[in-house]
Specification:
The chain has 183 residues and is α+β, with helices and mostly antiparallel strands. 33% of the residues lie in helices and 24% in strands. Helix 1 packs across helix 2.
Length: 183
């Protein structure tokens, strides 16, 4: 059932990670700029563990970040979606895209579809985005999604030293924003 899950937007396909996504995921996590605000660059073995944790989360909980595939090219361009590891400060929809996909509206397009799915399918009542205070592009995206800065939060180990703020909104605010064309 999870293997058949597929969300299509105008330009993207969102689906659970597949083994063929591993190599582009490695490239993404090795890029110092792309990985800057998501724990920093990682060696291949660490990426393997994170990739498998994401795939395992799909199998055990029924959700995790989606692999984002650009329809026109068929290429993997990032991961976006629901995420809630043990000890996380809330039900998050996060994003991370390969640098080649930046500035094209893909993160927003994928985040909107992911937030809709989290509220409508997972039944979440609130969504957050944990964002480094220096990560201006993600702050702008969160704001465009209708989220507001709720202040500093602490992440669980091994990320407890990262400084992040929680941006978020309730399901009711999201639905109102969608009805009014804000998002």
């Amino acid at each position: 059932m999870i293997e058949s899950l597929r969300i299509e937007t105008e330009r993207l396909i969102l689906r659970p990670p597949a083994l063929l996504d591993f190599e582009p995921w490695v490239e993404f996590m090795a890029d110092p700029e792309a990985a800057r605000y998501i724990g920093g660059p990682q060696p291949r073995a660490a990426v393997w563990r994170g990739f498998m944790a994401m795939a395992g989360s799909w199998q055990l909980t029924g959700f995790a970040m989606f692999s984002v595939i650009e329809k026109v090219s068929g290429r993997w361009i990032g991961r976006v979606g629901p995420w809630q590891p043990d000890g996380w400060p809330g039900t998050e929809v996060g994003w991370g895209l390969s640098r080649s996909a930046w500035g094209q509206g893909f993160a927003r397009e994928a985040a909107v579809a992911s937030i809709d799915w989290a509220f409508d399918t997972l039944g979440w009542t609130d969504v957050i985005h944990t964002i480094d205070p220096e990560n201006r592009p993600s702050q702008v995206l969160a704001h465009r999604l209708g989220s507001s800065n709720r202040g500093a939060v602490r992440l669980p180990a091994p990320f407890e030293t990262l400084h992040v703020h929680s941006w978020g909104q309730t399901r009711e605010v999201w639905r109102e924003n969608r009805r009014n064309g804000v998002v």
